[in-house]
Design a protein that fits this description.
- The chain is α/β, with parallel strands linked by helices.
- Helices cover about 45% and strands about 15% of the residues.
- It has 7 helices and 7 strands.
- A 7-stranded parallel β-sheet has the order 3-2-1-4-5-6-7, sandwiched between helices.
- α1 links the parallel β1 and β2.
- α1 runs parallel beside α2, α3 runs parallel beside α4 and α5 crosses α6.
- The longest helix is centred in the middle third of the chain and has 29 residues.
- It starts with 7 loop residues before the first strand and ends in a 7-residue tail after the last strand.
Length: about 250
């Protein structure tokens, strides 16, 4: 597990959930990991655990990222949030905020990282998308829109980065056991008018052939492989980890 020895990595939203699991996975493979998160205490805790660095940052402040020069070999765009509401009631400012955080910020981070990657002839950009980057669900207009846009960003990056040794891929999990998913169970119960105990099976896992939540470490394992030399010919792809949801 030293295939990334001498490499550097940045993981956004790295203070918890999928991001923290990715930080641990990449560090275990030998990379020096920078944990980027609005939660500076959480970022420092994970960074200390993996022998990396903390980067407290508000990724929704897009103007602060426009001149960014990001010297990293691996970039994991993971930061994201959820809001559950019908379109007619969806707050416009919340919609704009979510697209800034989950589309514009990844674009600016990629833009800032590519010159370094091009100079070194190596780069791995891994975008944590979702099954909602490929499929839609009601009441999640901003999230679904953002993840569909992230898929396009990833593919264009793959085409431009390929001649320079840079790959770009999406990882598309279903529902993962993270704070993001746990927090929305009450929202889903309210919106669908059902008890919370029915949400996991009847809403979250309704379309999945495998009736369980993904673990963050399972997502991180795929991210670790995509960052490795073994995945040098894998680019422009979207890897579903959705228990069969998108097979329908």
């Amino acid at each position: 597990m030293t295939s990334l020895e001498g490499r550097t990595a940045v993981v956004t939203g790295g203070a918890s959930g999928i991001g923290a699991a990715c930080a641990r996975e990449l560090a275990a493979r030998g990379a020096v990991v920078t944990v980027a998160d609005l939660d500076d205490v959480g970022a420092k805790s994970v960074a200390d655990e993996v022998g990396g660095k903390a980067w407290p940052i508000d990724l929704s402040d897009a103007s602060a990222l426009e001149q960014l020069q990001l010297e990293t070999d691996i970039l994991v765009n993971n930061a994201g949030i959820q809001h559950v509401s019908p379109i007619a009631e969806f707050p416009p400012d919340r919609f704009r905020f979510m697209l800034t955080l989950m589309v514009e910020a990844p674009f600016l981070l990629i833009r800032g990282a590519l010159p370094h990657m091009y100079d070194n002839g190596f780069g791995r950009i891994i975008n944590i998308s979702s099954v909602h980057g490929l499929r839609a669900s009601e009441y999640k207009v901003a999230y679904v829109t953002a993840k569909h846009a992230l898929e396009g960003l990833s593919k264009v990056t793959a085409l431009e980065g390929g001649p320079h040794g840079v790959t770009s891929n999406c990882v598309n999990p279903g529902y993962v056991r993270t704070p993001l998913v746990t927090k929305q169970i009450a929202d889903q119960a309210r919106t669908h008018g059902i008890p919370e105990q029915e949400v996991t099976e009847d809403v979250l896992l309704k379309e999945s052939a495998i009736k369980r939540l993904l673990e963050p470490e399972e997502v991180a394992a795929l991210v670790g492989w995509l960052a490795s030399p073994d995945a040098a010919m894998v680019t422009g792809a979207s890897y579903t980890m959705d228990g069969g949801w998108s097979a329908r």
